[in-house]
Amino acid sequence: MLSQRLTSREYTENLLDIALATARLSPADRGLCHELVCGVVRWQATLDRLIARKTDPARELRPALRNFLRLGLYQIFWLDRIPPHAAVHETVEQTKRAGYHSQAGLINAVLRSYLRETDEIKKILADMKVSQPALGWSHPEWLVDKWLARFGDEKTRRLLEWDNTPPKTFARVNTLKTTAGKLVERWREENVDYDFTTRDWTGENLAFELKAHPPLNSLGSLRDGWFYLQDPSTLLAPSLLGAQPGETVWDMCAAPGGKTTFIAQQMNNEGKIVASDLDPNRLRLVKDNCARLGVTSAEAVVPSAITPRPSTAFDRILIDAPCSNTGVMRRRVDLRWRIQAAEIERLRATQLGLLHEAAPRLKPGGILVYSTCSLEPEENSEVVKQFLAGHASFTLETERQLLPFADAVDGAYVARLKHST
Ligand code: SAM
Q: What's the confidence (pLDDT) of residue 5?
């Protein structure tokens, strides 16, 4: 298991990666397992509404039984590739295998009654997306209300649909170790099906969409550090940072190292990158990824090791701040059930604190880039505005918000500020 994939143990995707790493499953079953787990987590609110229609609210359903019902209903109403009767049969058998013999009848009764109403329920589900979008698209209501007020019906619907669609896999070639030409040659040998992909901030021959591939951890090209898995949106902040060979750069929130290693590539490994992160475990991932990608110009250090001496003044600083992650909900399937409205206010204080910490460490004329993968103005333009109001020596040069429904990439916000004195 490569450290790039193992950033946090508790997220669904990471737990799934860990479980699948040792599971003896065919590639098809592996794909199905992934789809079932991620699908059930994504559509949990809508699935639970269906469960509530057929179960006694006075009797609490055990979590395992609820999960069996979710699994069965997901297969009936969201998956085409499993015949519904087979899905019901298998779910009931699975309930028994898990030791719930006496409750298998309940699971069977609920699922079979839904089998009889499939067409009617499909219509109800489609109507729900319009009349109750939070429930119909299985998102928290406060967040959908927030997006509706800001983006309107149509764009919010496209955003909700984006969040519920399995994400594509993208890679960035590591030119410190290879070239785009050599990488695609190796991919052909490894049975990786790819497409070149470009955005206005990436240029040519840098980013790829991986359309089909063997398990990524089995690829020598990944182990050898010939590429790094990252969405094209994550290349915008380093591009606006514009680090040059020989410069000194501070990447303040560096883990797991996607942007650090790209900045090193832009600098041709010449100069110095100080890569820090509050979380020492995640900082280890920066070290691992730098080693794998042949980055020798970056040093991974705990933030307390960076003192405000003049010798540590930086040409450029990147703050890829911790945020609510609302721009990457399609990749982090359980995020929508963790995120709280109050959390955004708390994050704002951290984000502003990071900007205040960075400001005195920048050389005169230096560049400060602030980025998040949030869609929320409270964490983006409003934070930058508040910082600028107290720092007259900084000016905003560029500001950009990437939106999934407009840019067809994960959501991201990037602001480039210049220190004028
Ligand atoms: N730049 C990384 C990349 O491209 O791979 C992603 C960074 S992630 C969005 C935010 C990181 O900020 C997390 O790794 C988290 O541990 C770190 N973090 C949170 N609070 C911090 C703080 N006060 N100082 C430094 N790092 C912090």
A: 35
Delimiting residues of CATH 3.40.50.150 domain(s) in the chain = 232-419
Assigned fold of 232-419: Rossmann fold (3.40.50)
Strand partners, 396: 417
Who contacts 139 (Cβ-Cβ below 8 Å, separation ≥6)? 45, 133, 160, 163, 336
Known catalytic residue at 253: no
The set of protein residues with a Cβ atom below 6 angstroms from ligand 1 is 234, 252-259, 277-279, 282, 303, 320, 322, 350, 354
Confidence tier at 7 by pLDDT (50, 70, 90): very low
Average pLDDT over residues 388-409: 97
Per-residue HEC secondary structure of 36-103 comes to HHHHHHHCHHHHHHHHHHHCCCCCCCCHHHHHHHHHHHHHHHCCCCCCHHHHHHHHHHHHHHCCCHHH
pLDDT in tens, 77-100: 999 989 999 999 999 999 999 999
Q: What is the average per-residue pLDDT within 130-157? A: 98
Domain with CATH 1.10.940.10 in the chain: 2-138
At 4, is the pLDDT very low, low, confident or very high (cuts 50, 70, 90)? very low
Which CATH number is correct for 169-229, 3.30.420.40, 3.90.25.10, 3.30.70.1170, 3.40.1440.60? 3.30.70.1170
Name the closest-CA residue to atom 11, ligand 1: 253
Q: Whose CA is nearest to atom 23 of ligand 1?
A: 278
Homologous superfamily (CATH) for 2-138: NusB-like (1.10.940.10)
Choosing from 278, 343, 348, 372 the residue with most ligand 1 atoms within 8 A of its CB, the one to mutate for a pocket test is: 278
Kindly report the protein residue whose alpha carbon is nearest to atom 21 of ligand 1. Answer: 278
Residues written for the chain = 421
- Reported as a single tens digit per residue, the pLDDT across 221-262 is 999 999 999 999 999 999 999 999 999 999 999 999 999 999
